[in-house]
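[step 3/7] fold_predict: job queued, chain A
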Amino acid sequence: MTRPVLQSKDITHIPGTFLIDAPGSFLNGSGISKGKEYKNYTKVKTFRDGVSKDGRTYFVPYVSAQALRRYWRDTVNREAGWQASQIRALKLNVKEHTSKIGGEFNPVEFPEDDLFGYMRTVKEETENEVAVEDDEKKIFKVKNLKRTSPLSTSILMSLRKDGWEGIDEAWVHLIEGSANPYTTQFYSTTLQGIFTLNYANVCRFSNVGDSIELREDLVDRFLKENKIREVGQHEYYGVKAEIVPLPGKDKKTGKPKTKTNFKKDTKYGKIYEMVNADSERQLRASKLLKSLARLEGGAKQSAFATDISPKVLLVAGLHNCANPIFNDLFEDDRSSSDRNITVKLKVDTLLEVVNDYVDRLCTHVYVGIRTGYLQNEYEIKKQLAEQERFVVTTPILAAQMMAQSLGST
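[step 4/7] structure written:
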C-alpha cells in the first residue's frame, strides 16, 4: 500500500487521547465510608468492570469528567492569561441554600465559556394569543440558555483493573486524649482519557428555537460593538396556540366558552460568529491543546503529590468527523516487573484506525511520548517512523505542532 498523502481539507474536529501516570495518587474522591474494617475511611472513585477468574469483581478507579474539566479549565486560564468565568450563586432556595449556580454566560469575552459551555434555564412570562374575553390568560415559556461545549471529554479511567489499591492508615495526635485514626485509599496506575474538540464550532453561536447559546442582551450589545456578525439563519418549527371563542357560556364559571387550536408555526433562528473568528478560533484551540500538555490539578496533592501532565499525548485534525477515534489504544501489560513500564501502545490498532480514517485526516498524527514510559517505545518509534502520516515527539511538542497546524503559534 502506498503512503497516504496529507489532505488539504479544513480541520473541523480535533480528537485525541492521553495518559497520566498516577503512582501513589488520590486525584478524585467519593467521600468518607464508615465501614467495619476502617474508621474515617476516605475512598477514591471506582466503578465495577468485569469479574476475575476467581470470581472477584473488579473495582476500577477513575477521575470524573467534571474533575478533569475543572483541571483543564483552571490550567488553560492560567497558561493563557484568560480572565476566568467565575462560578457564583445565581439563586437561593427557601432555606437560603444555593440552588442554582453559573458563570458569566459570555462566550465572546470569556474563552472558557466558549470552550467548556454552560447551561441555564430562564423562565419568561409571555402573552398568549387569546380572545379579548380571555386577555388575562398568560403562559410561561422556558428558554434554555445552553452553550453546547465544543470540547467533549471522557472520564480518566485506570488501565489497571487489579493490584492498584493502596491503604494509608494514619493518626491525628492530640495534646490531650487518644489519637484519632483515619484511613485513605489511593491508587498506583495509569489513567487514560480521550477528547474531541469541535473546532468548527469554536467562536460560533446558535440561537435557534427555545435553546439559545448567546444571551439576547449580549447579541444586541456585541452587534453594536462589531464583535459578532450574523452568518446564517436556521428554519425551525414551533407550535402556535390560538384561543377560539365558541357559542354559549361555561356552566361552572359563567365565562364564554373557548377552545384551543394548535398549528405549526415556522420560525427562523440565527447563527452568529465572532468578527475575528478565524484568528480567535486558532488562538483559543491552540491554547487549549497546549494547556493539556501542562495539565495541573487533582485532590489531596499536599499528601499524594502527582504530576498529572500527560506522559503520552496523541492528537490529530479531522474533517467532518466528530468521532473520538483514538480510543482504547493502550493496555497495561503486567509481564514487565517494572511498574513504570507496564503500559503498551497498541501500534497495530493505531495503524488500522489511521488507515480507516485516512480520507478524513487532514494533519499528521502527532504522537508525544515521554522517554522511558511505554514498554514498547522502541517498537513505536521504529514502526511509526516508517509512516509518512506520523510524527513521534514529546507530549508538549505534540501539542505545539498540532497548534501550528491550525495556523497558530
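[step 5/7] annotate
The first strand starts at residue 14 and ends at 25.
The longest helix spans residues 65-80.
exit 0
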